[in-house]
Design brief:
The protein contains five helices and 24 strands. It has two domains: about 1-275, Alpha-Beta Complex (Sulfite Oxidase, Chain A, domain 2), CATH 3.90.420.10; about 280-385, Immunoglobulin-like. A hairpin with a 2-residue loop joins strand 10 (about 200-205) and strand 11. The chain has about 400 residues and is mainly β. The protein is about 5% helix and about 30% strand. The chain starts with 7 loop residues before the first helix and ends with a strand.
């Protein structure tokens, strides 16, 4: 099967595609052809290996992001796992270390949580001065329905000890270079025990696609995407925080951010957790041409563990603001859709959006610069030309 023949249908399959060898994972393409026809507006490739693909802005006109348009973030190749042999190991400070198969997780009570998944580096490519890393613009984010057992019910089977304070998380993906650190992350034990933290087996009501963590991934609503461990294979219950490069060094944010471009010492970097309030405009498209008259602005907003309280729109560089209509909401963790009609006159027009969460958090005019380019949430804007 050639790369161009690999269908979107095959790409989205879960258990049925698990027999492919590991090298084939690097050839999975979200832009692949569906029954002979290419996607009208394909995903945006940031890196081909590992797979890092961004969602186009025009997708964000619906509350639930379609699977075939949902962004993909990887550090290594996508592992090809067999549903019949995959195991989740739970160890550490537990009375009953154990391994669970997919059938064991299916037997537990399942819940569904709608939540935004966003790469911490979404917007990295918009920082000035430039920072290193995958140059995401605005599309490393999506909203889905995630279904599976609560993590606390899974952990209960192993009987965590009273000293439990942290969870160390590891997936099945590995670098082809032996010396590369394993992707190990961690969350506080309390967050793991939250009723909305789940081990997801389904995404938008179907089995998790390979690129999104089949057969199981962690869902940590309201928190940055690096904690949502894909291809979950090991959970260690610890008294102290996890060790390793991807926890102790990477994915950290300054305690006190400095000036753009300024260095930040390691002892001033903290582990990221919460997403920050954000909105982004889906239509009209940047650099598009619109006719004079009434132009409908549509987009999405989200705010981590807070509900979106309002979204405002400005067409005069933020001098005045008008409240957009919130037309559909996915609850406190999901996308909130907004719409607003502006009167467009011939010439150049810049439209900006600004979200406010229920706790009073507001999108800033400029992003909080940091050396890794995380948590970009500056006021969003699109430039269009108005003419007949």
């Amino acid at each position: 099967m050639s790369q161009s023949q690999f269908s979107r249908r095959t790409f989205l399959k879960g258990a049925g595609a698990m027999s492919f060898a590991m090298p084939f994972a690097s050839r999975l393409l979200p832009n692949a052809y569906a029954d002979g026809g290419a996607l009208a507006n394909p995903m945006i490739e940031r890196t081909a290996r590992p797979l890092n693909y961004e969602t186009p802005l025009d997708v964000f006109t619906t509350r639930i992001t379609p699977l075939e348009r949902f962004y993909i973030r990887n550090h290594f190749d996508v592992p090809m796992l067999d549903a019949t042999t995959w195991r989740l190991r739970i160890e550490g400070l537990v009375d009953k270390p154990l391994e669970l198969g997919l059938a064991d997780l299916e037997k537990l009570k399942h819940v569904t949580v709608e939540a935004v998944l966003q790469c911490a580096g979404n917007g990295r490519g918009l920082f000035v001065p430039r920072v290193a890393g995958v140059q995401w613009q605005r599309g490393a984010v999506g909203n889905a329905r995630w279904s599976g057992p609560r993590l606390k019910d899974v952990l209960a089977l192993a009987k965590p000890k009273a000293q439990a304070a942290h969870l160390e998380l590891q997936g099945a993906d590995r670098s082809v270079i032996e010396a590369t650190p394993k992707f190990i992350r961690g969350i506080p034990f309390g967050k793991g025990m939250h009723e909305d933290t789940i081990v997801a087996l389904r995404m938008n009501d179907v089995a998790l696609p390979q690129a999104h963590g089949f057969p199981a991934r962690l869902v940590v609503p309201g928190w940055v995407g690096d904690d949502w461990m894909k291809w979950l294979s090991r959970i260690a219950v610890l008294a102290d925080e996890p060790k390793g490069f991807f926890y102790e060094t990477a994915y950290r944010f300054p305690v006190t951010p400095g000036a753009p471009g300024a260095a930040v010492s390691a002892d001033q970097m903290k582990v990221m957790q919460l997403l920050v309030v954000k909105s982004q405009i889906a239509t009209p498209a940047p650099r598009s041409v619109v006719a004079p008259g009434r132009v409908t602005v549509k987009g999405v907003a989200f705010a981590g563990q807070q509900r979106v309280a309002k979204v405002d729109i400005s067409v005069d560089s933020g001098t005045t603001w008008a409240a957009a209509k919130l037309v559909d909401t996915g609850g406190k963790y999901g996308f909130t859709m907004f719409e607003h009609v502006v009167d467009a006159t011939p010439g150049k027009l810049r439209i900006v959006s600004r979200a406010t969460d229920a706790g009073g958090g507001v999108q800033p005019v400029t992003p909080v610069w940091n050396p890794a380019g995380y948590l970009y949430n500056a006021i969003d804007g699109v430039d269009v030309e108005v003419r007949t």
